[in-house]
Sequence to fold (707 residues):
Amino acid sequence: MTRFIKNILCLVAVFALVLLVFPAVAPGGETVKVGLPISLTGKYDVLGMRNLHGAKLWAEWVNENGGIFVKDKGRKLPVKVIWYDTKSDKDTTIKLTEKLITEDKVHFLLGPYGSSLTLASAAITEKYGKLMFSHSGASDKIWKQGFKYVIGVLTPSSYYYKSTMELMASLDPPIKTVAIITEDNPFNLSIRKGIKRWAKELGFKVVFDEVYPSPPTDLSPILSKVKRLKPDAILTCSHFKDGVLLAKQAAELRVYTKFFALGSAPSTVEWWKAVGPKGAQYTAATSQWEPMDAPDPSRFSNWFGPSMTANQFNAWYKKRWGKPTDFRGTQAFAAGLVLQWAIERAGSLNTDEVRAALNKMDIITLYGRSKIDPATGIQVGHGMVVAQWQDGKKVVVGPPDIAVGKLVYPRPR
Amino acid sequence: MLDFTLLVQASINGLLIGGVYGLASLGLSLIWGVMKVVNLAHGVFIMLGAYLGYGMYHLLGLHPLLGMIIAIPLGAGAGFLSYRYLLHRIMEAASSELEMEMMCLLFTFGISIIIYGTALNIWGSDIRGIPALLPTLFLGELDVPSSRLIAFASALGLGLILLVVLKKTFTGKAIRAVTQNRAYVMLNSIDPVKIYQIAFSIGITYALMAGVVISLISPITPFMGGYYLLKCFTVVVLGGLGNPLGTFLGGLILGLAESYTSLFATYAISPAVAFITLILILIFRPGGILGTLR
Fold:
C-alpha cells in the first residue's frame, strides 16, 4: 500500500471519528436541546418518573412531526431532551442544572420535581439567563423572587382552591361556615392564604383555622375540635400522606360535614385504597388535571398541540409507558408544548425573544388553558379541576363547563 | 369556656396515641438502658414492622396484627446477627466508653441508611395504608376509634410482657443486673455479651412489633421511621432509660401533652410543648420520671 493511500485512509478515519463524537456540528444536525434535572431515585422517584415520561413523550411527538419550526433557521429542528437524575436532592439538582447549562449547552430547561427543587434550580437558570418551564413547582414563592426567566405551567398554590370554592358557592343548601386544616410548611400555608382570600370574596365564614406540625403521627386533637364546631365544609391543605391520615381519622371520629375537600391529596389514584372506602367516599379533590372527556379540541380556535382530550392523552401515555399517568406526566408534556409554541411564535431560539413571545400566549392544550403574567411568568390561565370520589371512582364534578358527573352534596351521613 | 365532652375526648385521643408512642419506644429504651447504645436504626425497624403488617393484610388477606408472628423470629434473628457479627465487634474494638458510644451511634446510623435506602428501592416512595377494619365505638358523644383502641391494647399487653420478663425471669434479672454492674455480673458466671445479645434482639423485635401495631393507624412510607424515632427519643428520656413502665408512662405523657395543647392552645405548638415538658423533667428529675430500672 502506498503512503498516499495510507494517509487518505487515516484522514477518513479521523473524519468519521469526529462525526461520531460530535454529531451536532455536522451540517444539518442542529437540535433544540432541552435540559431536565429530574427525580428518578429518592423521595420523589415515582412522581419524577412520570415527569420524565411526559417530557419524553412530547419530544417523540415533536420529532415524529418533523420537529419545531424555527423561522430564523428556515426549517424544522428536532428536539432532544437531556435528563439527569437529581436523586431528589437539592445540592445534586443545583449541580446538574449547572451542568446542563454549561456542559450540555441546552437551549431551554424543564424544571425539576416539586417546588423546593424548582426554586433551587431556578436560582441557577436565572443566573445564566436560561428559560426554565416549571411543570411541577406550584408554590407562589417561586414567582416572588423577582426571577425573569421562570415560566409557570401549572396553577400556583394560592389558586388551588379557587374553582372548588366557586363550586361551593353555588350549592344548595348553601355552605356558610368553613374549617381550614393546614400542614405547617410554606407550600401548604400558601394554599391556605388562597382559601382565606376566596372565603372573603365568596362570603364564607372561617370558623376554624389551625395549623398542625409536620410530620404528624396523630391528627385526632385537631379533628375533635373541628367536630364540636360543626362547620358546613372542611378544606385541608396537606400532602397525600397527611391527607390519608386526615380522611381516615375524620371517619373514625365521625367528623361529618356537608362537603369535605382535601386539596390535591385525593387526586392521586392510590387514594381509595390507602384511605379505605369508608373514609374516602365523597371526599373531594382539587386537581391540576384529570383524565376526562375534555377539553374538546374542536371547540377552541387557539388549540395547540396534539388534538386529543385528557382521556385520549392518558390512553396514549399508557400505550407508550405501560401505566396511565396523573397530572404529573401531563404537566411535563404541557411544559414542552408551551416551549414549542413560544419558539415557533418567536421564530428563534434566543431566550429573550422566546420570553417576549410567551407574554402574548393564550392557548388551550390537552392540559387546559395556558397564559402567563408577563411581569413575573406565573401561570394565570390554567384552572383547577374539582373531582369527587364516588364508590371507588374519581368523578370530575367541576368547573361546570367540563364536569362529567354531579357532585354528591350534601355528603350522605 | 371549657367544653367537658371535648376535654374527655381529648384525654381519650391523647391516651390512645400515647400508648402507641410508649410501645414504639420500648425497644429503644431497653437497648439504650442496658447497652448504652443509642440505636438510631430503631425507626427503620418500626418502618419494616409497618410494612410487615401491611403485607399481612394486603398480600395474605390476614389481620395485620398477625404480622407479629413473623416479627418475633425476624426481630430475634436480625438482632442476633447484627449484634453478634457487627455491633459486638465495634463495641469491643473501642478503647473508651465515649468512643464506644460514638462508634455505635455511627454504626446504627449507617444501618438505618442502608435499610431505608433498600426499602425505598423495593417499595418506592408510594404511600400505603390499611383501612379501618372495625367500626368506631361510640360512647354517647365520645368516639373511640377501634383501630386505635386495638393498638393501645396491644401496646399495653406487649409492655406488660416485657415488664414481666425483666422482673420475673432469670434472663430478665440478668439483663437488669448487667445494666447496674457489669463486673459483678461476670463474677456470677453470667456472660454479659450473651445478655447484650438477648437485649438487642428483644429491642429489635419490639421495634418490629411496634411497627406492626402502627400499621393499623398510620400511613405507611419508607420515611415514617424518622418521624417515630423523634417521638421515641422524647419518650425514652421522659420515662427513664431501660424502664418499660417509665417508658410507657412517658408515651402517655407525650400523647396527652400533644392532645391538651391542641385543646387549650393550638396543635401547631405541640412539638414545643413536648420539648418544654422534656426540659422540665430533665431539670427536676434528670433520670426520667421513674429513673433507670433497678
In short: The domain at 161-287+388-398 of chain A is CATH 3.40.50.2300 (Rossmann fold).
